[in-house]
Amino acid sequence: MTKTYKEYEIGVQTTDELISKLAKLSASSPETEDLLREILTTAVKLGLESSDRGDLKLINNALKELRYSFKIFAPYRNVKKVIIFGSARSANTSSEYKMAEEFSRKITAKGYMIVTGGGGGVMEAGNKGAEHGKEFALNIRLPYEQKPNPYIDEKQKLINFKYFFTRKLVFIKETDATTLFPGGFGTNDEGFEAITLIQTGKSRPRPILLMQPQGSTYWTQWKKFLSDQLVKNGFIKKEDFNLFKIITNVDDAVKYIEDFYRIYHSIRYASGLTVLRLNKTLSDKTLKLINQNFKDILTKGDIKLSPPTNEEIKKQEYLDLPRLVMKFNQHDYGRLLELINVINKD
């Protein structure tokens, strides 16, 4: 094996050779061998450097949780999935429970899968409404109230987490849209994190829908706080409101998610360019429109149709799809979401 990562070694020849041999024996493919070698090197470095059992226990548990989660989700990576967040304390007679159950039933009927937190309340409603076999539950082990709900049909799709941070990572990594129903600190934490990840470019663009039952003012009051305190004080831009949408009707929510991926397919950063992969070639009219209206988010140049980039060709990434490329400033993600919505109306 060629030592591509010589700079990241233990520095002891016999140890580094053993790590290389183990990586070669364990790698599922030649393309993953170098990364597996780094992971093994990190594990050995931890053993040599840390005498704190608590540190090693944390890393061990986190790595095991992530490994198992990736294994469970791997067969379903080509199926779009929607998160359902909301209060574990919502009664089954509450308007948010009923709305979540209806939404889950209708979105899974469209071919999507749903991912809940596995507990009671709104999470239970999500699992209850889902079509059989189209659900996951990512449960968090707590000393109170968070027991798996009885509507998780396939127990192999129930994953129990010790840590919130690994659970939240899997929620975002393995899904394509987020719905937030009224809830407490946990729901707000998950909502703010989902928005922040897109606002900072750490997560792919996605629909984030704030699901507000008829008669409720939960999310409109929440948005008013953002407007009165965050926007007025310059902590966020008003364009950041494009990162989420308040929805009061289940059918509108299903349509919004479907429309988001109607033409827009996925995003890729390659060779200093932002690449938007599309499900169909954009019309000249819409291409002209977005170049007129979104110059402010480009560092230079225009938004152009393009063949796959060299990096995409090398990795064989969706080579049959048309593309737009641009010099996006990688800052104004609220405006980027607005651009995607314009594209989807083509």
Low-confidence stretches: none
* Outline: globular
**Mean model confidence by pLDDT:** 95
Q: How many individual helices?
A: 12
Computed Rg: 22 Å
Q: Please estimate the helix content.
A: 40-55%
Describe this protein's structure.
- With 346 residues, the chain is α/β, with parallel strands linked by helices.
- It folds into 3 domains: 13-74; 76-260, 3-Layer(aba) Sandwich (Rossmann fold); 264-343.
- It is built from 12 helices and 11 strands.
- The protein has a 7-stranded parallel beta sheet with strand order 4-3-2-1-5-6-7, with helices on both faces. Strands 8-9-11-10 form a 4-stranded antiparallel beta sheet.
- Helix 1 (13-26) crosses helix 2 (33-49) and helix 4 runs parallel beside helix 5 (122-129).
- It is globular.
